[in-house]
Amino acid sequence: MTSLQEIIVILSDLKQSLIAFHGVNPVYPPPNKSETMARVEEYIKLVVAAISRGDWPLQLPIHGSDKMMTWKAANQRRKCLLLFHLLAKSHALLRTNTTSTKRDIYYEDVSLWGNQPVLDSTVTQMTRLLNIPRRCLNIGATSKGLVAGSLNFLDGDGKLVDCQSPTGILIPNDVEKLSQFRSKAFHILLVEKDSTFQKLIDDKIESFIGECILITGKGYPDVNTRRFLRRLWDELQLPALALVDADPHGISILAVYRFGSQNLEDIEHLSTPQLRFIGLQPSDIEPLHIPDEAKLPLTQRDRSLIDSLTQRPSVTENLLLHEQLTVLRRLNCKVEIQGLTKIHPQFLSRTYLPAKIQSKSWI
After folding, report:
1. pLDDT, position 287
2. Quick one: which of 91, 100, 137, 267 is 20 to 30 A from 322 by CA?
3. Which 3 state secondary structure label does DSSP give 298?
């Protein structure tokens, strides 16, 4: 049996073990349009009534729970008005059966929002309050992630999208409307950076680890890239392996894909718990004898992020992942994926990834 055949068998076994261990991801059917509009109208009335009465601090019930959302500080009065404006905007989008991105909403009235993060936090606040995924409110996100490899599907207009492109294609904005996923791949390789994504395409990575689907979120992933990865698992049950930098930010990005962000996961259901960490693992730095010029010292920001990550329940419950952060702290250095080119220009494609899969060295 050749090395490539061995890798394909190992990936097939991994697929079965992931299915057996995780089972089927829970499905949370969103409310229909009329239910969503009724819920938005209910909260518009609640906000108007509270403001009319001069209620302060302002408290609103979080839909479907016994918890309350509270605004106390004087500087939060403006946030309440922005929330009301966004509720009205969402209602208009639903009523006219149109969609808009956060970016579009921001540029419709820059003076109102002041900056993009203010709008972002208001959108998150609204989805939490209504307990509805943002996509159900007709407020979308602009994709920045790319996909390439053995995959095709139908987009929201019923057009066939073929992902076998030499530079990758942009992940569609309307991930929920994609259908009829087809692939001859044996797995998904999730890559942190666009530059590594492109190099793997150029190196014809499929020649060394079998047919695969490549995805990159170009750093910290957007909602659509995360949702797209989750949909690929749900539709195709292909094992997904993450390739990130051996640094705290790489592991943080891995955690967002695998466990979800602390802001959105309870509503949006974007995580892919089946994702496995293949590299670049901090524990690989010493055995690979990575040259010193490829190593960078940890900054204080890096150390603070390590401390934060090690306190997250999702990390503390995963002893092997927690150990990788311990190794980072002990080595007091970090290495980017590109650092492997210091060993050989094609070391990542020809040697590192095949060896990691053959040795089943994922976490």
Report:
1. 94
2. 267
3. coil
pLDDT reported for residue 248:
96
What single DSSP character describes residue 172?
P
273 vs 255: CA distance, rounded Å: 9
Q: What positions carry a catalytic annotation?
A: 107
Beta bridge partners of 246: 335
Bridge-based pairing state of the strands 152-154 and 160-162 = antiparallel
CA distance 267 to 134: 9
Residues 6+ apart with CB under 8 A from 180: 153, 154
Residue 9 CB neighbour total at 10 angstroms: 12
pTM: 0.88
List strand residue ranges (DSSP E) for the chain, in order: 58-61, 68-71, 100-101, 139-140, 146-149, 152-154, 160-162, 169-170, 179-182, 187-191, 212-216, 240-243, 276-279, 295-297, 333-335
Burial of 29 (C-beta count, 10 Å sphere; 0-12/13-18/19+)? exposed
Reduced to 3 states (helix: H, G, I; strand: E, B; else coil), residue 179 is strand
Instruction: Calculate the CA 127 to chain-centre distance.
Output: 18
pLDDT digits (tens, 9 = 90+) for 46-104: 888 887 777 777 888 888 888 888 887 767 778 888 888 999 999 999 999 888 988 89
